[in-house]
Amino acid sequence: MAVPSVLGVFAHPDDESLSAGGVLARHAAMGARTAVVTATWADDTARAAELSDALRILGAGEPRLLGYADARAPQSAPGHVRFCDAPLDETVRHVVAHIREFRPDVVITHDAYGGLTGHPDHRHTHRVTSLAVQAAALERLCPDAGAPWRPRALYLATHPHSAARALGAGLMRRGREMFSVPDEWIGATVDVRPWFERKVAAVLAHRSEVARGALPGRIAVLPPVEQRRLLATEWYIRHDLAPAPAARTELTL
């Protein structure tokens, strides 16, 4: 069976590596087409250059930046509206255009909480992408954004309750609220140990985030055995959008 193509849609540079770096690297290594859309940061910023390095490590092509401002970092796209404040129809159309151009089998994005941290940009990216995968299939929506395309599945990067405590203790700042989902919601648990070094290298390619002590920086100072314990599994909620020829389209496990 052919390995499904994957398009990731994430809020910030580094989310692709943290949330789905193992799956992206695995699918690329197996010959699948992979790409990533990033909602925030302008293409002439340092973080955009770091994203380019991370995607090269993961085999996910060139950055596809929407160019909106990060909700908490106005310097991310000077003169541009925050992603959370942009007109919804406009942001959905941009994502539809990327879906129709790339024509992925699977789209991956944040879960409805926005992952463990609940970042507002993550939550909004979930909303925009969930609408876009539906709109991309309908020829009378966004007619100027390319020919209709219906991905076969939407996967939401998430964390089950059973894993959240260890992840929070190892990666979250003390006192931060965590968001996780019931274990029975998990539709795909992916062991990415064979691609673990590539995933961590992609995370650490976001050098400015390492330097300021954000999540990549906290990962950078962990012993390798602890990095592997916390990052070598990825979890996804699966929503089927269209039937596959013979069976449901699944991430390669």
**Shape verdict:** globular
Instruction: Determine the strand fraction and express it as a percent band.
Output: 15-25%
State the distance separating the first and last CA atoms.
Answer: 13 Å
Q: Give the radius of gyration.
A: 17 Å
SSE string, helix = H, strand = E?
A: EHEHEHEHEHEHHHHE
**Count of DSSP E strands?**
7
Instruction: Determine the structural class based on helices, strands and strand pairing.
Output: alpha/beta
Biggest sheet statistics = 7 strands, mixed
Oligomer: single chain
Q: Strand order, main sheet: write it out.
A: 3-2-1-4-5-7-6
Q: What is the typical, i.e. mean, pLDDT?
A: 94
Number of helical segments with 4 or more residues:
9
Q: Portion of residues in helices? A: 25-40%
Low-confidence stretches: none
Describe the structure.
There is one protein chain. By secondary structure, the protein is an alpha/beta fold. Helices cover 39% and strands 16% of the residues. The chain has helices at residues 15-29, 46-58, 88-102, 120-135, 161-171, 196-204, 207-211, 215-220, 224-231, and strands spanning 6-10, 34-40, 64-68, 106-110, 153-158, 188-191, 233-240. Strands 3-2-1-4-5-7-6 form a seven-stranded mixed beta sheet, sandwiched between helices. Strand 4 (106-110), helix 4 (120-135) and strand 5 form a beta-alpha-beta unit. Helix 1 (15-29) packs antiparallel against helix 6, helix 2 packs antiparallel against helix 6 (196-204) and helix 3 (88-102) crosses helix 4. The radius of gyration is 17 Å and the shape is globular. The mean pLDDT is 94.
